[in-house]
Amino acid sequence: MSASQAEGEALKDGKGLVMDDVVANANHERYQATADIDIALRKTYDYYPSHRAIDFYNRYPEDIKRFADLGAKALRTSINWARIFPNGTEEEPNEAGLAFYDRVFDECLKYGIEPVITLNHFNTPFEFYYSGGWKNRELIGHFARYAETVFKRYKNKVKYWMTINEINMILSLPLVGGLINPTKEENIIQAKYQGAHYQLVASALAVKIGKEINPDFQIGCMMGAGMTYPYSCNPEDVWEAYQENEKEYALIDVQVKGVYPYSLTNKLKREGIELDITDEDLTILKENTVDFVGLSYYSSRLTAADKASLQRAGANLNSTLKNPYLKSNDFGWQSDPLGFRITLNELYSRYQLPLFVVENGYSALEKMEDNNPIEDDYRIDYIRDHLKELKNAMDDGVEIIGYTPWSGIDIISASSGMIEKRYGLIYVDLDDEGNGSLDRTPKKSYHWYQKVISSNGADL
């Protein structure tokens, strides 16, 4: 889970705003606002999902106890940057924010649960929007100060870190990934890649700082993963798919290999784009690569040279064509377990670093009736099928250091802002207008996953 999707208390104890805190849900212009945030800034909505979320801020002891009862060995979540530096520019951190995460991590460690922490999960302090978001070089220094602050504070509590969640998201949704408003840019490609470069330098600096504070830290990158297939064996479709995959890998290439891939540098050159890249930047990137590759995987993707006449599928933030060979869920998302194995093999072959699967899960429309627990066999089937392919990938020789399903508990959707789009093993009594007791009830999948964990995957 992530801070903005779970914690709530968006303005408590000195916390500043992040983008999630100024947009409503899909019933109230969320999709439009994530393309042009000024749409939301001009209005006041009755309900902001992140302001309450699922109230993890106050209910974390109960939730972590449920995760412990599940048998969880790790909890993947994030620190909200704006809880630590509310506007991002402060010289001194907000102690109340730091203390909150002390409590969360202590609670995890009490049960032997390893915190796996993302530094920036779409939660850049919103104040930076007004100075250009991540296309402003100054954010590198601010992010480095934030990283140093939390690394020092939690150096004996957190071992596994990821710098920037789904860093490739800045290329497809620049507002979500980088607080860059495409409607205000003369050249949005220039802006996106400039912002991406500054994120890459900030990430590498964080690796450098972290290793100096605690050499035992394991610091990874994180990408939204999923192989893109060609629609047909037409070479034009194959070439289209190849280019899509190269685009998605390009930023991870830099974080793992320390240099920009030729495919990206030549693309920018052909399009007449010159980025602000200094020799010092290149040295920082080269000398501070990551220890592992974190990834989310929900399904494969599909593309074609001529997309106009082809049907599109539902997707988690990224758009894709509908694959006629795959099943779809309530939201039009398609399930491709074998694509998971293919993706894992491709990533390991390309990077030769351990992989950490930190998101993999199934969304569905679910509502408890008469206090009867959710019978989510579809989620069990999805996770079971993907765990089988994970084991196959490990048999292929892929090194996997962890797997955390998305999500242990129902949370607010990052794309729609809705909770009806449920992922959790635990049901939360909350609707899309913010009504509900927030009571937690384990679903059938929770009890099934207990057996999976206790048998170390032998009992699927």
From TrEMBL:
Alphabetically, the GO molecular function entries are:
beta-glucosidase activity
Q: Name the Gene Ontology biological process terms.
A: carbohydrate catabolic process
Q: Which UniProt keywords apply?
A: Glycosidase, Hydrolase
Q: Name one Pfam family in it.
A: Glyco_hydro_1
How is this protein annotated for GO cellular component? cytosol
Tell me which family the UniProt entry assigns to this protein: Belongs to the glycosyl hydrolase 1 family.
**Listed name of the protein:** 6-phospho-beta-glucosidase
Q: Which species is the source of this protein?
A: Streptococcus henryi
